[in-house]
């Protein structure tokens, strides 16, 4: 079964992709400490994740690949507590942490923390582990599972020039996990972008160094669902993405878009929503980049419930803009926070395309409201 699981993490991202081959790719995490308190209603996303994983021959839960779009806390929270870091030979049965067979990381790991580049504790832990794995590669050591890494995008000042076989450059595609070709997916790297001059230095800040990737999921070698994932990239990056790809706009087409920065207005406009309200203007190139929806597309807000106020993110104006993009395509906008209970939002990819899985939101369906209560895409019924 090909499936994506979107965990309920408020303003954060946590996505599990299960490929036709059985391999699993995790994109970002936001595992909040409150989930460990049985009296707290924060969803236990760590437990939900472990329920979907397998153990290897050594008894270790594992993820085949873990893509970190960027090291903001709401994309990497819980790493040290729940994932094994360091030599895989040091994995402890008593700690029983999840092994990351292969890291997929932005080159931001090569930058040191500074006043303008603040990294949370889990983000620093990711960077330390990424550097350990890169060092093994540079020393010529054979990388087995638990020591593997891909660097997605080039860094400034030639920091990635010697990475050869573990470097994926912007515009390149790849279809391998843990050194093995996997014909059940293809990933195209669209960003991070490299600053061309001093005026573009802002694109190497943390949010704007986000990995932007189009992940094509296949059945029987045929692409059935295209996911566009963009981390927290702001409007300036999406402007550049469009300028770079407008002659080949099919690269940006999607069946499912994870709305960047948790449905933030800042990915669509240079204007402040809280300051200007309805007078804030959309950037045409950014809207084009984010507007390449295919027929029946789904746009997901991995965020708190979108409310009609000055909040950003999520921003009600951004939601309306996405609904405008979807309207002529007969698509749907959905917020992960909506619906009863704390079960994740799931999409199954079938030969007819992606379908929202009804069972995940049974309580809200019974009332005829919330996520999963309506048909999805091309007139298909929910599973």
What's the short story on this structure?
It contains 10 helices and 21 strands. It is an alpha/beta fold and 383 residues long.
Description of the molecule:
The protein has a domain at about 1-170. The protein has ten helices and 21 strands. The protein has helices spanning about 45-50, 75, 80, 120-140, 235-245, 260-265, 275, 285-290, 315-325, 360-365, and strands at about 1-5, 15-20, 25, 30, 60-65, 65-70, 100, 100-105, 150, 165-170, 175, 175, 180, 185-190, 210-220, 220-230, 255-260, 295-300, 330-335, 345-350, 355. The protein has a nine-stranded mixed beta sheet, covered by helices on one side. Strand 2 and strand 3 form a beta hairpin. It is globular. About 50% of the residues are buried.
| DSSP strand count | 21
The computed structural class is: alpha/beta
As residue ranges, the low-confidence spans are 197-203, 359-383
Give the number of helices.
10
Helix content: 10-25%
Average pLDDT, rounded to a whole number, is 87
Radius of gyration: 20 Å
> Can you summarize the main beta sheet?
9 strands, mixed
């Amino acid at each position: 079964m090909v499936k994506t699981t979107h965990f309920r993490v408020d303003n954060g991202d946590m996505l599990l992709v299960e490929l036709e081959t059985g391999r699993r790719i995790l994109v970002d995490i936001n595992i909040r400490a409150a989930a460990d308190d049985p009296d707290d209603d924060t969803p236990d996303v760590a437990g939900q994740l472990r329920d979907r994983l397998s153990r290897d021959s050594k008894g270790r839960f594992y993820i085949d690949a873990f893509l970190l779009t960027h090291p903001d806390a709401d994309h990497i929270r819980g790493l040290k507590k729940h994932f094994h870091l360091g030599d895989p030979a040091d994995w402890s049965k008593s700690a029983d942490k999840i092994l990351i067979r292969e890291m997929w990381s932005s080159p931001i790991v090569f930058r040191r923390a500074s006043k303008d580049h603040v990294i949370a504790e889990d983000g620093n832990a990711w960077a330390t582990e990424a550097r350990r794995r890169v060092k093994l590669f540079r020393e010529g050591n054979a990388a087995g599972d638990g020591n593997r890494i891909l660097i997605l995008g080039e860094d400034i000042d030639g920091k990635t020039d010697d990475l050869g076989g573990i470097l994926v450059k912007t515009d390149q595609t790849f279809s391998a996990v843990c050194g093995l070709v996997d014909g059940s997916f293809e990933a195209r790297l669209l960003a991070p972008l490299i600053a061309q001059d001093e005026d573009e230095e802002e694109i190497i800040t943390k949010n704007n160094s986000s990995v932007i990737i189009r992940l094509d999921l296949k059945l029987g070698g045929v692409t059935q669902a295209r996911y566009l994932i963009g981390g927290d990239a702001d409007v300036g990056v999406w402007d550049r993405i469009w300028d770079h790809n407008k002659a080949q706009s099919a690269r940006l087409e999607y069946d499912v878009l994870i709305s960047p920065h948790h449905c933030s207005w800042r990915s669509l406009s240079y204007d402040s929503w809280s300051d200007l309200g309805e007078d804030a203007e959309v950037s045409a190139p950014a809207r084009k980049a984010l507007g390449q929806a295919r027929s029946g597309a789904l746009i997901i807000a991995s965020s708190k419930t979108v409310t009609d106020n000055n909040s950003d993110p999520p921003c009600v104006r951004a939601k309306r803009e996405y609904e405008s993009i979807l309207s002529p395509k007969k698509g749907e906008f959905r917020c992960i926070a909506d619906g009863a209970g704390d079960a994740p939002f799931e999409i199954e990819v079938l030969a007819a395309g992606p379908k929202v899985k009804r069972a995940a939101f049974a309580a809200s369906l019974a009332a005829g409201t919330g996520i999963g209560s309506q048909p999805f895409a091309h007139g298909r019924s929910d599973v």
